[in-house]
Amino acid sequence: MTNRERGNETRLVHSGRRGEWRGRLVNPPVERASTILFDTVEELRSTKAGLGTYRYGLQGTATQWALAEALTELEPGAAGTMLYSSGLAAITAPLLAILSPGDELLVPDSVYGPTRKFCDTFLKHFGVSTRYYDPLVGTGIADVIGESTRAIIVESPGSLTLEVQDVPGICAIARKRGIVTLLDNTWATPLLFPAIASGVDISILAATKYVGGHADVMLGSVTATAEYFSRIEEVSWDLGHSVSPDDAWLGSRGLRTMAVRLRQHEESALKVAGWLKGQPQVGRILHPAFPDCPGHDYWKRDFKGSSGLFSFELGSADLAARSAFVESLELFGIGFSWGGFESIAIPVDPVRTVGQAPAPNLVRVHIGLEDADDLIADLGAALKRISTS
Ligand SMILES: Cc1ncc(COP(=O)(O)O)c(C=O)c1O
């Protein structure tokens, strides 16, 4: 039986740990290299870059290949994975590999902010136009697709507002029309939403979040079908993308425990969100597993669970009141990113250009691995302070 045929958790533990890469060690070690030495000029000239072939540091060593192979094996139907030095680089590189001047890109209005900025600035300058669509458009995407549409980004759930999209529906329509789909699958990971098997062409992870899992590494990955993988690989090397072996090693180290961490993030986030739901100062809970969350039915249909990131409406709190709330929490850090072992809370103000106006009073939390009851007590004390101030 190959790893690809085994369960998710077995693959998490065993994938990428080829004997020839790790020797007698449990983990492939950190192999640092720029120059690789060859015996002859002929060998140097004829060696083709690719996973498992030592050629030049840019194309990695066993340390990076181990992580790339493990991520590929988590996505049934995928041909390969490229690694990047951040999640954002893992979004921009495949877009540059696929799009040409004159093309149009469709992007959900709920997209991660820096993706929006890249589309509105760099891609625009490069001659690619972006049209934003309502993340809840579902199979109505058929009417949004235009003559020059070349690619569709899906991000499910969306950043900050967590709308769940009809990813299989959108991808099926796109595939019939020869349009490429790219999914930012960072929230769910392939464990909770197997992207390629659901019809996505290119699955992107900000591996900085749940793959790393410890708030100590920046990493991104792109896992793609055979139709797109070679092109993405080639363009990424043309652009000079590479990941340090130390960072790839941290990614592999995090990946081995991702399933158990995700289960705990899920359980604690559901408990905290359920408690928040009963508080008089709290409005809608934008957590995909809650009926308040737009697209909740897609989540029920397509996902195998939920992770630790969600948002909620805090009364009619303006930015100053939401900031005071977040600052008075003792166990929640204030900062960018999420997916680490620790809890984070920030006030968020999403940008929208189409579809439903977002709630003006959102706080986004990432529920870490602390005791959920301690987090609830912390949130309860902070809510009391804003009620009495
Ligand atoms: C949904 C999503 N995608 C991509 C990224 C970008 O990842 P990175 O911070 O590694 O560049 C983030 C970061 O917050 C994110 O939340």
Q: How is this structure best described in words?
A:
The strands form two sheets. This protein has a seven-stranded mixed beta sheet, with helices on both faces. Strands 8-9-11-10 form a four-stranded antiparallel beta sheet. The model has no long low-confidence stretch (mean pLDDT 97). It contains 15 helices and eleven strands. Helix 12 (258-277) packs parallel to helix 15 (372-388). It is 38% helix and 15% strand. By secondary structure, it is α/β, with parallel strands linked by helices. Strand 4, helix 8 and strand 5 (180-184) form a beta-alpha-beta unit. The N and C termini lie far apart (63 Å). The structure holds pyridoxal-5'-phosphate. Pyridoxal-5'-phosphate binds at residues 86-88, 112, 159, 184, 186, 206, 208, 218, 220, 337.
Key attributes of the depicted protein:
single chain; 389 residues; alpha/beta; seven-stranded mixed beta sheet; four-stranded antiparallel beta sheet; 38% helix; binds pyridoxal-5'-phosphate
Overview in brief:
The chain has helices at residues 8-14, 19-22, 41-46, 62-73, 87-98, 113-125, 141-144, 167-176, 189-192, 226-238, 245-255, 258-277, 296-302, 319-327, 372-388; strands at residues 80-84, 104-108, 129-133, 149-155, 180-184, 202-205, 220-224, 282-286, 309-314, 344-348, 362-366.
